[in-house]
Amino acid sequence: MSMSTKMLFERRVILVLAGVGALAVLPFAVIRLWQQDWAIAAVDSIVSSVFIAIFAYVWNTEKTTIPGFVISIFFLLTATLTVVLKGPQNIAWLYPSMIGVFFLVGRKWGVTVNVITIAIVMAVIWNQVEPLDRLTLLLSALATNAFAYVFALSTAKQRKLLAEQARRDGLTQALNRRAFEEQLNWLVSVHQRIHSAPELIIFDIDHFKSINDEFGHDQGDRVLIQLTRIIEARLRATDQLYRIGGEEFAILPLETQPYHSDSLADELRQLVAESSLMAERSITISAGVAAHQPDETAEQWFKRADKALYEAKDAGRNCVKVSPSFDDTTQHAAAS
Ligand SMILES: Nc1nc2c(ncn2[C@@H]2O[C@H](COP(=O)(O)OP(=O)(O)OP(=O)(O)O)[C@@H](O)[C@H]2O)c(=O)[nH]1
């Protein structure tokens, strides 16, 4: 799978901060050298070199954890050293540094390293400022930290919500085709490492077009929503239901007994046939089942399940068909 959204976000933040950091600090390094202010010039030169090195590292490797910590420590160390070397009036640099840290290392580490830094900086300036100024500086630094924490928390929640919404179908709230393909590919990739072959059920509402034609699209929508509800209520939490097309659904049962998906599919078929999804007519589903074969691609596996579904339609609908290789595997397992 490609990089997660969080990783991409952190990578971008690090690249922007490292790039901007290098561009912002480099001129100061040159000015300080020109002014022969050797201590600050040395700090600025080291900081800008580290920013350039981090930018190149993240650009080339896509790794973010260590660079995130390194930039954070540099931000805080630079802000602290500036206070030590140039006096308490330079504490202003601590505030943007603390906010940057939240983006780089996450809110839990962010709040921890920031509080430690505030303690160090306060110890440094303790005897250099008036008691009232001490209190002002301490409270403003802590408030900045608290606001940054709350902001980071709400941003993380929103990112999680958006990522979840991108995996859901708007009408039924079942997981969507994108989530299905991700899970299908993941199961194919882990097949060698798990005990039994992953299994796939695909099912489709029979003569759904005629429901739309006779009773209207809204009624068709209601059937899709209610069907999703009754199937999800029957499934275990680990057996996810996906809406993969208009009236086509899939289930990837996990932690089920091996070669058990055909009976699960038949149970669901019966459940739908016996439920009163519509008062005016009975609703039925047809299903195809396939167990993944070693060395088979996700597409080949899906096609076999889809072929079994079409066999169920050809056989008169309201029934379940299993892919022949599913039976072979079942027999093989029973024989061994
Ligand atoms: N109401 C509603 N209808 C949909 C939605 N998505 C697809 N459809 C309809 O689902 C119908 C699918 O029709 P077909 O593919 O011919 O399948 P069918 O009528 O169920 O026939 P069989 O599958 O062969 O039993 C089409 O009329 C689509 O317009 C949706 O979100 N809401």
TrEMBL record:
UniProt entry keywords in alphabetical sequence: Membrane, Nucleotidyltransferase, Transferase, Transmembrane, Transmembrane helix
Residues passing through the membrane, by range: 12-34, 40-59, 66-85, 111-129, 135-153
What this protein needs as a cofactor is: Mg(2+)
Keyword Membrane carried by entry: yes
Q: Taking every annotated instance into account, which residue ranges of this chain make up the domain GGDEF?
A: 196-325
Q: Does the keyword Acyltransferase apply?
A: no
Known catalysed reaction(s)? 2 GTP = 3',3'-c-di-GMP + 2 diphosphate
GO CC entries: plasma membrane
Q: EC number(s) on record?
A: 2.7.7.65
GO biological process terms on file: cell adhesion involved in single-species biofilm formation; negative regulation of bacterial-type flagellum-dependent cell motility
Q: Which domain of life, per UniProt?
A: Bacteria
Task: Provide a Gene Ontology MF annotation, just one.
Answer: diguanylate cyclase activity
InterPro entries per record: Diguanylate_Cyclase, GGDEF_dom, Nucleotide_cyclase, Rev_trsase/Diguanyl_cyclase
Stated name of the protein: diguanylate cyclase
Q: Supply the source organism for this entry.
A: Pleionea litopenaei
